[in-house]
Amino acid sequence: MKARVLIVEDDPLMAERYAFDLAAHTVDCVHSGQEAVAALERLTPDAVVLDVHLPDMNGLDILRRIRSAQMPVGVVVVTSQASVRLAVEALQAGATDFLVKPFTPERLQVTIANVVEKQRLSRQVEELTETLREERTNTFYGFIGASASMRGVYRIIEAAAPSKATVFITGESGTGKELCAEAIHRAGPRTGKPFVAVNCAAIPKDLMESELFGHLKGAFTGATGTRDGAASRADGGTLFLDEIGEMDINLQGKLLRFLQTGMVQKVGADSAQKVDIRVVCATNRDPLREVEEGRFREDLYYRLHVIPIHLPPLRERDGDALEIADALLVKLAGEEGKGFRRLERRAAAAIASYDWPGNVRQLENVLRSAVVLNDGPELTLEMLPPVLSTGTRSTPAGLLSEAAAEGIPRPLTAEPALNGSREQVATLVLGSAADLKPLWLIEKEAIEHAIDLCGGNIPKAAALLEISPSTIYRKKITWSEKGLD
């Protein structure tokens, strides 16, 4: 296998000999440490033949730089000193192999071939690991999670995507309404065309008509040039109207006419032009209540509300919070240059148990804050904000507080006075022999109690019990098969 090899050797004749021996590969030669550092920044070699004794620095310092920068390159350290201490130091610094001068051309060729093959196999393993990670992650056009409620959303998106019918998305803030609109666009025949999003809550009502339909030069104060609106820019694609409930009631009539005719008339223009767009809108309000209270036109509501999609809040997406957190942690760590790769068990339990009133947006912000302010391979509970780490809301401690408020029995915290005989203490703690239960029954009761405490949410119950949800599912199947339900 042909590879790129960088030779770092202060003796030009020796470097030339190495290059001749490795003529089957693409070879670059440098003769000092500084040249080596510059070459590593410029080139992407598969292997480095690195002499330890260079005129301006120690070769092992270059090796440490390579490893600290996590360069995917194999390094063969070369020295004229057959020292066990030096060999151990080189290998501890991250050397792939170690050669002592003099060595034969065949020895160098075999060593480089082995290093290159090892690099190739490492890349294959990384690619396979990434592929398996992607396969394990339940993703759908940017969404992460495979809860029953989200699978229902995915089915509606797949069914609605090929149509031109208007889609009306509802859901709390942070549930991913724009992501849903993008999924509809990408899953349908308009995927190669523009996707234009307009946040109706972020644009002043006096400018909203111009933002949607465009304007001619001089149409109003500040209109210094002719400008296309969002509807014209989305021609052939999808127009997403986010927070549609915030649109001024007077503009809603013009939007209704546009939806009925498909004609765009710029502010200040006498004529209109035809556009072909698919309209998707979203709101975090109850649209029917907005209609009843006169803030949203009833005829516009029925014109828009053709295919409704409701995005469930994160607290109703069993098990998805942890899956989203795992994916976000790796993504954010990469963006911020941090080493996080996994969640600590306690942190995972807190994330699984919390209500997430701000939904996925809040979860992402919490994780980003923790990643920015900390580092390490594992994100711990202490790195999360106090609202999670202290058990506020629906963390395990919070759930116990809610249980007490609802009259669910809690364990007694007062210790009994241990002033009786050993037999009396044993009876007090364990009860009589008749009170003892089989271990499987105690386990079954504990699991069922945790499930009841969590309102039937098995992933939350598993987090409280510090076991995997699959363990609960497996045990429930076993109990069912044995008729122990």
UniProtKB/TrEMBL annotation:
Keyword Oxidoreductase: no
InterPro entries noted in UniProt: AAA+_ATPase (IPR003593), AAA_lid_NorR (IPR058031), CheY-like_superfamily (IPR011006), Homeodomain-like_sf (IPR009057), HTH_Fis (IPR002197), P-loop_NTPase (IPR027417), Sig_transdc_resp-reg_receiver (IPR001789), Sigma_54_int (IPR002078)
Keywords assigned: Activator, ATP-binding, DNA-binding, Nucleotide-binding, Phosphoprotein, Transcription, Transcription regulation, Two-component regulatory system
Positions of the Response regulatory domain: 4-116
Keyword Phosphoprotein: yes
An annotated Gene Ontology molecular function: ATP binding
Domain (Sigma-54 factor interaction) ranges: 143-372
GO-annotated biological processes: phosphorelay signal transduction system; regulation of DNA-templated transcription
Annotated positions of the 4-aspartylphosphate modification: 51
PANTHER family, per the entry: PTS-DEPENDENT DIHYDROXYACETONE KINASE OPERON REGULATORY PROTEIN-RELATED, TRANSCRIPTIONAL REGULATORY PROTEIN
Protein name: Two-component system repressor protein LuxO
Originating organism: Novispirillum itersonii
